[in-house]
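Form 7-S
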Amino acid sequence: MFKIRILAIFFILAGIGIGYFTYSSEVGSDDVAPRLPFKLGLDLQGGSHLLYKADVSNIDSSEIADSMSALRDVIERRVNLFGVSEPLVQVEETGVFSTSREKEYRLVVELPGVTDLNQAVAMIGQTPFIEFKTERASDEQETILKAQEGGERLYEDPYFIPSDLTGRYIKKAVLEFDSTTFQPKVGLEFNKEGEALFAKLTKENVGKRIAIYLDGAPISVPVVREEITSGTAEISGGFTAEEAKLLVGRLNSGALPVPIEIISEQGIGATLGGDTLMKGIRAGVYGVIAIAIFLILYYRLAGVLAVVSLAIYTALMLFIFKVFGFTLTSAGIAGFILSVGMAVDANVIIFERIKEELKSGKMVQGSISDGFGRAWLSIRDANISSIITAVILFWFGTSLVKGFALVFGLGVLISMFSAITVSKILFLSLGIKEGTKFSRFLLGGKI
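Output:
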């Protein structure tokens, strides 16, 4: 009995400690607890929701999954460059039971805190197209210029010839500043293939100009002094620091491996998100209070113990959300509230089993132990069914459904622990015996 009571005290103190940490890290300062606010989803803090359709018609069916994964990574890197807090970028498939060619692949992009849709679309943007062009011979230049004067060859560049070296061979771009003029410039590092192409290009054009074009316009036209084998180059196009930083970010994000087309864009204001959050919190608080009142009025002392167990369960769930960085959405809050109901349902099953044992003439302690044991089978089967449902929803659902499924499934798992283990320890720790005043009100009636 002494060990059981020590364990019960440990559960209660652990619940209080976890609850205090969760609360203080949300509203307190770093002096009390490290600042660790909940991560809120788009619907709770406002932002932009963009939905893109990916064109996979020209991609081999065996490579679609890898291409979509690469697309997600590129877009994620791109929005991260702008400092967006906790962006969500994920791939969705429609028609999951169809063949690859019959499926429609979509990309969901959620940008919390970005309420300007134009800004959100611009963040995804288009990858800049970098070209390296070599200088034409002077006689070729004159020929093309004369032809253009006569209205011919109007779309041909009279000064430079496209080469095989483009931005697709860029491994990394960095923002640099000229040591003399302090003007910003962009340093480029090529991959192995690009390094060989650039070395060949500079070797064949020593003393000539190589133009670097950005999106069809020349931005830098340096003269090649010698062959460059280091695999590096620089663009100094009279940028501002902000323009150079933007170009570096775009180059580093890479080209999109799959063409995409925006099919839906939705903005959620911060005010609307905050209002949704407060409504969700109020619904949760009112629901827990109503459940606690019901348990105490109907089950008396057992109800009080169930409320303590429920409080520990709630504190533990919120602690997990915070520490493991789960993003809370309105659907997730709904899943959490539903999991609270599952936890209460488990307690009700246990209490009714204990009542049956008491009516059969068993002693209080024996009824408690046997009641928990008999209730376990029903609780196990019901919760396993719920967990299977949560897994299916998470596997096949959209982002909104996945948030609900994850929180609900996690809540069901933890509710099994709180209802079976914590509640039982609290019951047994009281050491209730026949004839005591507590035994009369254990489950709302005389024993």
